[in-house]
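FORM 7B - TANDEM STRUCTURE REPORT

SECTION 1: FIRST PROTEIN
SEQUENCE AND TOKENS:
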Amino acid sequence: MVAVQGGPSPSRAETPEVPAWLQAHLGTGEGQIAPVVLDRARALYLEKLRQGTVRNPCYLAMDATRPSTARDGTPGRRFYVICEAQKSFRAVSSGHGNGRKLRRADFSNDRDCARHFSNAEGSKLTAGGPYVTAETRTSFKGYVGAANRRVPFYRTFLLYDGEGETANARERAIGGHPAVLVRWQCRFRNPESPHADAEGFVPYGRLVNYTGGRSNGCTTWSETASEEILALVEDDPTTLYIYPASGDIDAVAAAVTAGRSLSRAGLYWNDTCLRTIRAPRFWPKETLRPIIDDWRASLPKLAPQELPICK
């Protein structure tokens, strides 16, 4: 595998050989992890372990080149939780950034395969590279449930700290969370609620589950997987490597344009998604941020809309 920008590259002596039980999970099939993704994730984890940055016995990885939907129609498994001491490997689903379609640039992604990637704030795109999990924040999203039994819904968000091209993860509000949201519909009076506004109203809406779909650039998991991952890293940070980094994307795009075989060039991209997207594109923040800022400046100044009263 050729070296590309964005991947840790310790010497062979520094990286223990992949144990046999974990080698059994290597591959490009459903529920497997591509060798380059595991190599990058292990290298990052072992580096941070040696530095004393993390002590967690487990580490995380994601392959954003894979489709979000498996052949049987279920969410595609492309996020990995690996605990080598326990000989535990689990593959779960995760969303990829949906991007935007603006007048000056279309960097939107379809639901199943990601073509566009970026580290630009406001791009709503996935940025591959090294991360370390940080603190969690739990916030109120609205009331849900039947009219006679409305309850508050809270969602926990796991922050990431990035390095290099992903160093602006906090600026971008990039992290991990359950793939659920509350789509507000109306408001009702509940002055006893700690979430009531100055007039005593709280928002109410419908709970939407988008497991395996797109996100604003964060990693999004099913509620079950979220519980496991959040419990794993609470007060015990670990590493996350998201593939592909910008160097991978540029190298694959160049190979596709030249008509060269990826395998012969020592490159990797999921075959199913590559056939769908034809060639990936990385948008550096220096390129995309001015376009996003120009779009934001062009938006009309509208007065905040008020939710109707629930019937």
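SECTION 2: SECOND PROTEIN
SEQUENCE AND TOKENS:
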Amino acid sequence: MLVQALLLWSCSTTPPRNLNDSCAIFEEKGSWYRSAKASYERWGVPIDVQLAIIHQESRFVDDAKTPRGRLLWVIPWTRLSSAYGYAQATDGTWERYRRDTGNSGADRDDFDDVTDFIGWYGDLSHREAGIPKDDAYRQYLAYHEGQGGYLRGTWRDKAWLKRTARRVADRAGRYRQQLAGCEENLDSGGWLWPF
């Protein structure tokens, strides 16, 4: 029993201590930089945009889930959505990603897979809705509403969603500025990489 508990604990990933500093995130979680950089090189969605979306969706919690609904306002019921993991990707969208990329073993609680997913999704938003890959505001609107919803303008009457997308864009801008000061060191392997 103790061995099983230790194995489960060792597999779980804790969020970074400082969620507001991209350099601190990557200094603490070195393999995450390699994952985000690989996604950027494959799909063209900047690292700062990837991080800002993950921050908004899960605060870097690997097994984040949507809240449960309530039956008769008190009894915990089913979850409000199938969204799960770092990216809060729904079952259907995740399956489409797996099918489209051939990454059939991808997991929503694996940072490497999630950064690739966000890159893929941003590339899809670029191709289907014409959204620039570095436009965190519009990328997030399409991330939340889907490309079809974005094109139909389902976000236009959602003031809360536009405020959230603005926060994502602001955070991406801060992450981008921070990365400008440490990316050379990250690329050269200047820090010892944990995990």
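SECTION 3: OBSERVATIONS ON SECOND PROTEIN
The CA atoms of residues 94 and 108 lie 8 Å apart.
The chain has a mean pLDDT of 87.

SECTION 4: SIGNATURE
Preparer initials: ____
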